[in-house]
C-alpha cells in the first residue's frame, strides 16, 4: 500500500467574515481549505528537513526554506501554515503527526513574486517532491506511475484513474486494482479556479457539472480514508464549491494603453468572443455585463494536442459515474464524453501563463501567433517581475536547440519543455495567425484588462 503515496485536492482561498457576523458559505469554504487536513500525511516530520540529502549537495543550504521552495516549485503561504510552504501541511499519520499535502500544492501559484490561492502552480515539480521526500523517509519503491513529465504540469488525470481503481462504487477499498485505462502522458497545466464563477462544466473537456461537490473530493482517495471520511467532509466541500464560485482574479498591476486596448477589444469581439465570451462592465455602478458560451470546440477544429482528450477512457468515466462521486444527493452528475476542449473564460489571463491545456505556449503572443511558438524551451521557474514578459505577456523563456538526451538528472530534464514529446504539442488554435503584428499587440493589451 506504500505505492498509494500520491494525491492532490482542489482549492483556493477567501477572506474571513467580518467581526460579529456569521461567516458565509464561501468564507467557511476558505477556512476549510486553509486549515483542514482532509487526508493523512504522506511523510514523517523528518522528511522535509532531511530532503536536501537527496539533492547531491554536501551540506544543508543556509536558507533552507527558500531552497525547498526553489527546488520543488513551492511558494510562501499567504495564510498561517505552521511555517510550511503553500501546498504542504501538518496532518495525522497513524499514531503521530506528519507532513501531507493539500489543494494548494497544485492550486496555489505565484506571479510577480506574490502567492495566490487558486492560481495554478506553474512551477511545481511534483515528481521530485514525492520521490525525494519518500527517499528522505527511507522508502525506496518507485512511484506507481509518472506524476509529472515536465515541470509546471502534472498528470492529474492519472491520479484520479489510478486511485479510483482501488475503490468499490461505495468507496470502500478493493484489491487488486481495477484497470481503468491509466495514461501518464497528458501533461496538464493547472487552470485558475476563479474561472469556476462562469463555467457550467469542469475539466478541460467540459466533462461534468462545475457545481458538482463530490468531484472536488475525488483526490481524497488516500488508502487510509474511509467512506465515512468522505461523508464527514462533504458539507465542508459544499462550502468549498461556494468559495470557488465566488473568486475574483487579480488585476493586471502595470500600466495599460487604454486607446490600444480599446482597439484590441473590437478585434477580440470580432475574432475571439464567440468562444471565450465578452467582458463588459455595467454603466452607473450596475453589475458587470458579460457573456460566456461554455462552448466545447471539436478536436479536429481546435487542433491542440489530443492526449488529454483521449487519455481519460470510457471505462473510467463509467466507473466514476456509477460511484459515490457521480451520485450526488441532488441528482447524478456523471462524466460525459465530449467532442473536444472547452474554450475557457479569460478573466485574469495575464496571470495564468503558460497557456493551452498542456502549458505548451509560454506567452499570449504565442497563443495569437502559432509561428512564434518556441519548439523547445526552458525558463527560470521563478515568478518575480524579472521573469515576467510584460510585452508578450507570460513567462520569459530561453529557446533551446538540442533535444533532450536523457543523460542529465531527471529533475533537470523536466525543466525543458520539448513540444515534440507526447502530450506536449503546441499546435492548433491558429485563430490569431491572420492578425497583423499591430493587431495582435492591441488584442494583448485588451487581454491585460480582463
From TrEMBL:
The keyword Heme applies. Transmembrane segments: none annotated. Residues 259-450 form the Cytochrome c domain. The lineage of its organism: Bacteria, Pseudomonadati, Planctomycetota, Planctomycetia, Gemmatales. This is Cytochrome c domain-containing protein. InterPro entries: Cyt_c-like_dom, Cyt_c-like_dom_sf, Cytochrome_c_Peroxidase/MauG. The keyword Metal-binding applies. It comes from Frigoriglobus tundricola. PANTHER family: BLR7738 PROTEIN (PTHR30600:SF9), CYTOCHROME C PEROXIDASE-RELATED (PTHR30600). GO terms for molecular function: cytochrome-c peroxidase activity; electron transfer activity; heme binding; metal ion binding. Keywords: Heme, Iron, Metal-binding, Signal. Pfam families: Cytochrom_C (PF00034), RoxA-like_Cyt-c (PF21419). Residues 1-18 form the signal peptide. Gene3D superfamilies: Cytochrome c-like domain (1.10.760.10).
Amino acid at each position: 500500500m506504500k505505492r498509494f503515496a500520491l494525491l492532490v485536492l482542489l482549492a483556493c482561498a477567501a477572506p474571513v467574515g467580518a467581526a460579529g457576523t456569521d461567516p458565509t458559505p464561501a468564507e467557511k469554504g476558505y477556512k476549510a481549505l486553509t486549515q483542514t487536513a482532509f487526508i493523512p500525511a504522506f511523510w514523517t516530520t523528518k522528511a522535509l528537513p532531511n530532503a536536501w540529502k537527496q539533492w547531491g549537495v554536501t551540506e544543508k543550504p543556509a536558507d533552507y526554506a527558500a531552497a525547498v521552495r526553489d527546488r520543488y516549485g513551492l511558494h510562501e503561504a499567504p495564510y498561517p501554515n505552521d511555517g510550511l510552504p503553500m501546498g504542504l501541511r501538518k496532518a495525522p499519520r497513524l499514531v503521530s503527526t506528519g507532513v501531507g499535502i493539500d489543494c494548494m500544492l497544485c492550486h496555489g501559484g505565484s506571479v510577480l513574486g506574490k502567492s495566490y490561492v487558486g492560481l495554478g502552480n506553474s512551477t511545481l515539480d511534483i515528481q521530485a517532491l514525492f520521490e525525494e521526500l519518500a527517499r528522505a523517509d527511507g522508502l525506496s519503491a518507485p512511484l506507481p506511475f509518472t506524476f509529472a513529465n515536465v515541470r509546471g504540469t502534472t498528470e492529474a488525470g492519472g491520479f484520479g484513474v489510478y486511485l479510483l481503481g482501488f475503490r468499490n462504487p461505495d468507496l470502500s477499498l478493493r484489491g487488486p486494482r481495477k484497470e481503468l485505462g491509466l495514461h501518464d502522458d497528458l501533461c496538464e497545466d493547472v487552470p485558475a479556479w476563479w474561472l469556476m464563477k462562469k463555467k457550467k462544466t469542469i475539466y478541460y473537456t467540459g466533462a461534468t457539472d462545475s457545481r458538482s461537490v463530490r468531484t472536488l473530493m475525488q483526490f481524497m482517495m488516500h488508502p487510509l480514508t474511509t467512506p465515512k471520511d468522505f461523508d464527514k467532509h462533504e458539507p465542508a466541500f459544499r462550502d468549498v464549491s461556494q468559495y470557488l464560485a465566488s473568486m475574483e482574479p487579480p488585476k493586471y498591476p502595470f500600466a495599460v494603453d487604454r486607446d490600444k486596448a480599446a482597439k484590441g477589444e473590437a478585434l477580440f469581439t470580432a475574432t475571439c468572443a464567440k468562444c471565450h465570451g465578452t467582458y463588459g462592465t455595467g454603466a452607473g455602478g450596475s453589475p458587470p455585463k458579460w457573456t460566456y458560451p461554455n462552448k466545447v470546440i471539436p478536436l479536429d477544429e481546435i487542433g491542440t494536442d489530443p492526449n488529454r482528450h483521449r487519455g481519460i477512457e470510457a471505462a473510467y468515466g463509467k466507473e466514476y459515474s456509477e460511484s459515490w462521486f457521480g451520485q450526488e444527493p441532488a441528482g447524478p452528475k456523471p462524466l460525459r464524453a465530449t467532442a473536444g476542449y472547452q474554450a475557457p473564460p479569460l478573466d485574469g489571463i495575464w496571470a495564468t501563463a503558460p497557456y493551452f491545456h498542456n502549458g505548451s505556449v509560454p506567452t499570449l503572443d504565442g497563443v495569437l501567433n502559432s509561428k512564434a511558438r518556441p519548439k523547445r524551451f526552458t525558463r527560470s521557474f521563478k515568478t518575480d517581475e524579472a521573469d515576467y514578459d510584460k510585452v508578450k505577456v507570460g513567462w520569459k523563456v530561453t529557446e533551446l536547440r538540442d533535444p533532450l538526451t536523457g543523460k542529465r538528472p531527471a529533475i533537470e530534464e523536466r525543466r525543458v519543455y520539448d513540444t515534440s514529446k507526447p502530450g506536449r504539442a503546441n499546435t492548433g488554435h491558429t485563430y490569431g495567425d491572420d492578425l497583423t503584428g499591430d493587431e495582435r499587440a492591441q488584442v494583448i493589451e485588451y487581454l491585460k484588462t480582463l
